[in-house]
Amino acid sequence: MAEPRIRIAVDSAVATITIARPEKLNAFDIDMLKELSAACDAIEADGAIRVAILTGKGKAFSAGGDIRAWAGMEPNEFGHAWVRFGHRVFERLATLRMPLIAAINGHALGGGLELAAAADIRIAETQVKIGLPEAGLGMVPGWSGTQRLVKRFGAQAVRRMLLGGEILSPDEAVNLGIVDLVVETDTAVSAAHAYAARIAARGPAATEVSKLMIAVANGEDNGAAVEALGSILVAKTGDLKEGVAAFTGKRPADFKGEW
Description:
single chain; 2-enoyl-CoA Hydratase, Chain A, domain 1
């Protein structure tokens, strides 16, 4: 049986997700998207995990979507089975309950940058290139390159990469807020683990709720974030416990308004 191409390693409170298809520069096909979605489910189900790191095996971070995986698709299949599905998986990654750090150990172009943008913190090595070359290939970003990236980095940065075809160095990306920290070659993962330790030492409940609150302020997934915050709050009240007890006991509820 073939080894999984999306691998999880857990060290105490930190989970590392590694994209392991180095012979294809860690480019995604449909099965890898499914594996990434399952990896998100797995680490969220582990209550001991407080931080996640995303990186690539070998010298690549991720080349984004594997052209061979979608080039033969009919337009409707391309739009739904590839673009919309990949969009949902990247959204799943972006909305993990715990902070996510991208250890960008290779070029982040096109879908690779969209993948890195799903993280809360991005640490890039000095040799990497960053950009959105899709228009030069006669296509547009499909995994939130014009949506999440605009919200997180600003419209002008995305215009420069997508319309102008600018390929950025990590130092240029730092100035535009695309990258948070630049490190030497072969040190992104260790730097990510050091940063993850800082996050893991902070209050886990406060960290999770703060991530949701920031998402609301930034206009990302407002409905789900607000309902998640409200549900967490209400779930801790005496009213919810009483409501459930009354329902199961087939009696009227006696709400006390206990917070």
